[in-house]
Amino acid sequence: MQEASVYLAFARDKLGVTFNNIELLITAFTHRSYVNEHRKTVKEHNERLEFLGDAVLELVVTEYLFNNFIDPEGTLTNWRSALVRTESISAAATRHEFEPLLRLSRGEKRGTSRARAQILANCYESVIGAIYIDQGYEAAKRFIKDSLLTTFKDILETGSWMDPKSHLQELAQSQENATPVYKVLEEEGPDHEKLFSVGVYVDGKLKGEGQGPSKQAGQVAAAEAALLTYK
User: What rounded mean pLDDT belongs to the chain?
Assistant: First the structure.
């Protein structure tokens, strides 16, 4: 009962939702690893809710973009991708203070920041699924609007909706009148497990370095690093 009261208060204060079935929200915060450590008391994790919430999220974002912008399909698709990607929705979960309520195994609690971002993103989608089941589509839509769609203006202004290589090329050409050039700096590992270190140069100057399992992935990581040097 004490745990339920914590989640009820969280739903009211952070999500703006009064749940009828608070067990749905508790499940939304339950990672598979937590179930593995508490098999006798916990039976369900959040992956089914995540599956549902992902579909609701995509529909709400698509509906918002379709109703408010007349841009071509390709642009709308890129904007939608920027809104629903892991980084965007995990940031929304962080702003709403999801992390303290995550139910994780001891091992997952010690995981990397990248792993935690993915867990938060999955939880965000699970919470949408829980709201949808308990309160309906309009309540889920309000939550997405208040927690995520308010960031769309910043996404447009910063150009972060573009893929990193396209964004870097636009900035390099507009600010330095030069086109980025990518070079493989190093290759490590056997053929089936290669790691490529790539550098990106603008006007002959090294602007960023990145690594990835392919040259393309390394280029994207290098572009992301280079973007941090521009304002």
Answer: 91
- The mean per-residue pLDDT over the stretch 87-101 comes to 94
Angle of the 86-95 helix axis to the 113-135 helix axis, nearest 10: 70
Q: Which of 50, 54, 108, 134 is catalytic?
A: 54
The larger pLDDT score, comparing residue 23 to residue 191, is at 23
3-state secondary structure of 212: strand
Where do the CATH 3.30.160.20 domains begin and end in the chain?
164-227
Confidence bin at 206 (pLDDT 50/70/90): very high
Do the Cβ atoms of 98 and 123 come closer than 8 Å? Answer: yes
Q: 164-227: what fold?
A: Double Stranded RNA Binding Domain (3.30.160)
Residues with Cβ < 8 Å from 152, sequence gap 6 or more? Answer: 79, 83
Pinpoint the residues of the chain covered by CATH 1.10.1520.10: 2-156
Q: pTM (2 decimals)?
A: 0.75
- Among 3.40.920.10, 3.40.50.150, 1.10.230.10, 1.10.1520.10, what is the CATH number of 2-156? 1.10.1520.10
Residue among 37, 87, 108, 125 flagged as catalytic: 125
125 catalytic per annotation: yes
Tokens of 222: 């290098």
